[in-house]
């Protein structure tokens, strides 16, 4: 029998003691995840204090950090099962519970039962969407999301709150539009509508100089009126999936993103 298992238990063999190496967690990507979690927590606290503009900024900041943690993990080769689970739990708080609570405190409370029903539907759909994403990772076309991603759904809900707050609109006046938007964002998350994921864009490839100029111009436009520009961008993205769905239907192509890509080696044998 091999003496390797005994050595891993920390026993002494031939004058050498080998101890089992302790498992730890990677600090860098999980710091981004914790930062995103703080953004969601901060949004809830700000909503409780009536600062809905700061609550929206907290959730948008969580979106930025959420987009970075996975990329940082891949670039530094620090992916881990712990990091994946931590990311999902943080997303549930920042893009599920936080937007629902902020929307409820801002306008949905005034609708009584209808208000908390809309907030709960959004929160429950976010949980269902994240769970489905975790179990379907290996069979979904990497170029598309199955349903609206939870950060984009959170951007729709909190972006609307942010822009209405900036414009000084009374929440009671737009309570029913907030109700409709919360239901739209929630139900679209659990739909099968394909939304472009941008995952096929590589940060390691060289790009023309004009692309850098366009990025700079884009940042400049956002800084002019962040609430309006960001909300407008996510409204377009939130509708784009239905455009892709309709286009595929018209062309007679499959509309499901399950096993539609032939570019991923680990998906061979899934396409029929």
Structural write-up:
With about 270 residues, the chain is mostly helical. The chain is about 65% helix and about 5% strand. It has a domain at about 25-195 and about 235-250: CDP-alcohol phosphotransferase transmembrane (TM) domain (Four Helix Bundle (Hemerythrin (Met), subunit A), Up-down Bundle), CATH 1.20.120.1760. A hairpin with a 2-residue loop joins strand 1 and strand 2 (about 15). The longest helix is centred in the middle third of the chain and has 26 residues, at about 80-105.
Major sheet description = 2 strands, antiparallel
| CATH fold name of one domain | Four Helix Bundle (Hemerythrin (Met), subunit A)
Element string (H = helix, E = strand): HEEHHHHEHHEHH
Number of helices, where a helix is a run of at least 4 consecutive DSSP H or I residues: 9
At the fourth level of CATH, the homologous superfamily of one domain is CDP-alcohol phosphotransferase transmembrane (TM) domain
> By helix and strand content, what is the structural category?
mainly alpha
Low-confidence stretches: 1-11, 260-272
Please state the overall shape, judged from the principal axes of the Cα atoms.
globular
Count the E strands. Answer: 4
What percent of residues are in strands? under 5%
> Span from first to last CA?
47 Å
What is the strand arrangement across the widest sheet?
A: 1-2
Helix content: 55-70%
Please identify, by name, the CATH architecture of one domain.
Answer: Up-down Bundle
Q: What's the level 1 CATH class of one domain?
A: Mainly Alpha
Mean pLDDT: 84
What gyration radius follows from the Cα positions, in whole Å? 22 Å
């Amino acid at each position: 029998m091999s003496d390797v298992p005994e050595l891993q238990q920390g026993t002494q063999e031939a004058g050498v003691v080998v101890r089992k190496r302790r498992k730890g967690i990677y600090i860098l990507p999980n710091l981004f995840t914790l930062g995103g979690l703080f953004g969601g927590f901060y949004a809830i606290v700000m909503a409780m204090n009536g600062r809905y503009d700061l609550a929206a900024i907290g959730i948008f900041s969580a979106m930025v950090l959420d987009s970075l943690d996975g990329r940082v993990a891949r670039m530094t080769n620090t992916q881990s099962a712990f990091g994946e689970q931590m990311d999902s739990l943080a997303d549930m708080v920042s893009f599920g519970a936080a937007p629902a609570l902020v929307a409820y405190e801002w306008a949905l409370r005034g609708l009584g039962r209808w208000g908390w029903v809309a907030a709960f539907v959004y929160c429950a759909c976010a949980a269902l969407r994240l769970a489905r994403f975790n179990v379907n990772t290996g069979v979904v076309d990497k170029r598309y999301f199955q349903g609206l991603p939870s950060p984009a759904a959170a951007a729709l809900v909190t972006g609307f709150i942010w822009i209405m707050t900036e414009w000084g609109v009374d929440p009671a006046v737009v309570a029913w539009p907030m109700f409709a938007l919360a239901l739209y964002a929630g139900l679209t998350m659990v739909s099968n509508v394909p939304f472009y994921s941008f995952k096929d864009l590589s940060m390691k490839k060289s790009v023309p100089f004009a692309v850098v100029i366009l990025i700079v111009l884009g940042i400049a436009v956002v800084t002019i009126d962040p609430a309006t520009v960001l909300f407008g961008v996510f409204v377009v993205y939130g509708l784009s999936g239905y455009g892709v769905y309709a286009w595929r239907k018209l062309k007679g192509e499959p509309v499901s993103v399950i096993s539609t890509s032939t570019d991923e080696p680990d998906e061979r044998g899934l396409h029929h």
